[in-house]
Specification:
By secondary structure, the protein is mostly beta strands. The chain has one domain: Translation factors (Elongation Factor Tu (Ef-tu), domain 3). The protein has a six-stranded antiparallel β-barrel with strand order 1-4-3-2-5-6. A hairpin with a 2-residue loop joins strand 5 and strand 6. The radius of gyration is 12 Å and the shape is globular.
Length: 95
């Protein structure tokens, strides 16, 4: 599991029209690694407000294949289709 600080973007910044909720499943990109994940709140939020930084757990769909590709301090982007809906930094990796 990857712990990250992420900010979700509203549509006027190219992001979503509605705020994402804990448990949603975007694609995650860090460097040249592209895979899917589940985003879960670490503080109990159900809905993530836009333009605010959150500490989240990024649970990779295929951790055995991709977890070693991520490092603390890596920049990450969250996508829905071709749309970047969030950006952040990896704070920790829990094994």
């Amino acid at each position: 599991m990857i712990l990250a600080r992420v900010e979700f973007m509203r549509s006027d910044r190219g992001g979503r029209y509605t705020p994402p909720q804990s448990g949603f499943r975007p694609q995650i990109v860090a460097g040249d690694v592209h895979t899917s994940c589940v985003v879960e709140s670490l503080s109990g939020e159900v809905t993530f407000d836009f333009d605010k930084e959150y500490s989240v757990a990024l649970k990779l769909m295929f951790p055995e294949r991709y977890e070693a590709c991520f490092s603390i301090g890596d920049a990450v982007e969250l996508y829905e289709g071709s749309k970047v809906i969030g950006r952040g930094v990896i704070a920790d990796i829990m094994k």
